[in-house]
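hi! just following up on the protien thing from before. the input was this:
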Amino acid sequence: MTVALIVALGGFLMGFDASVISGVVGFIEVEFRLSKIELGWSVASLTLTATLAMLVAGPISDRIGRRPVLKIAALLFAVSAVASAVAPNFLLLVIARMIGGFGVGAALIVAPMYIAEIAPPDKRGRLVSFNQFNIVIGISAAFFSNYLILTLGQSDSSVVEALRLAEWNWRWMLGVEAVPAVIYLLALAAVPESPRWLAMHDREDEALAVLTKASDEVTAARELKSVHDSLQTDANEQQASIRDLFRPAMRLVLTIGVTVAILQQITGINSVFFYAPMIFEQSGVGTDASFMQAILVGVVNLVFTVAAMLWIDRLGRKPLLGIGLAGIAVCMLTLAYGFGSATYVLEAESLDELPAEIDRASLAPLVDTVYESDLAFRAAVSGAIGEGAFVEYESPIIGSAIRINPRLILFGILGFVASFAISLGPVMWVLFSELFPNRVRGIAISFVGVVNSTVSFLVQLVFPWQLANIGNATTFLIYGVFAVVGLVLVMRILPETKGRSLEELEQQLVKAVQ
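and the predicted 3d structure came back as:
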């Protein structure tokens, strides 16, 4: 149990590293004068290298061991955190984030693999779930950490001034991850090597000693024999290739897998996780409130992930996906309506409340003009005071001008996160483990995982550009349409897999080649 908890800390770091950028984007956009695509790249670059790491982490861990790869991942997390915090320019910031991406990909593959290999069979499911649970906790912790640093930076404490939290707030947001990363690296010293890996390399005595720590000697010997039998079976079987996935017999399961992999990302989850404060600022609540509401995103994600873990074997995979996709569609269409019905008007009194650095004389011709869309308002203000000034003071300007129901926006975002967390979030990986036949399961999951990561990268990359060029309402409308299409597809092609053996599913879904 203790070893599983230590290893699962890699999931915490992965979740933290991925979502901590949400509090940073608004500050680096101004400091480094980024275009919208550059801003998207600062977020999506981590996913790019994480995808590459996912492809090589498994084979590398087979060669040098699970524990060394986890140590390398912990070191990459620490180096990335420090390098990101001190990055003097955009290029070095992206490079630092990409270093962390390699840690994310390695932890995502090797941590659950290690836990599954060391856990007793009767506890394996629960212990492996610690890793996914820790990812969600890491996401929530990043939102809270960002908010804490932002609010502490506004105090006049001598410690705060010495640390320059106000001036370097985004740097501290990124740098604080080095603390749990170093703790993880040190804690891994107490973790033994995987018994399966030891058996693969003919280190029998060491493998037996590790297994004995988790159970009695008789059980350990029986498990070691099972490991040997499994390794012998693997050695005797012909290795699957990527071509096997595209045989006619695999058409249905591959279609389901690719569809779900794309749906999980194209409905916008990482736009919300990685840009939550930016989205909330668009509703006019201000910077502090937007960071506070981002914490709610993390809490809701955590609560409904736990609910999914409790319900997935009771309700089944297909009902959860149906409920979740319907909820995602409703919430995204609600956001589209909320932003689409908003109006923007700068009143004379509002000008006095804006930061003193804004040229009020340039904004005077816009006073009392009603704008029906965020695009029209952005264009008018940018034309008046300049694009750079608008980007720097976007939050207070929009907050003073927008006429919108912020509670509707909050409901839409939180409802979307809840719907995702009980469906596409956890159910996708369960389906992947059940749909594909034993012989091709490893390569099939890698393939659909790469598809999933590729779509995630593209969504993160273009989201800031979408907001700036097609508007808030249209962006969320697109996500809502994808959810509706996905709901129809899932209900038509996905069978229920609950309570059915892998052999039964293979017989039903994988058609014999004529």
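Residues 36-64 form the longest helix (29 residues).
The CA atoms of residues 4 and 286 lie 41 Å apart.
cheers
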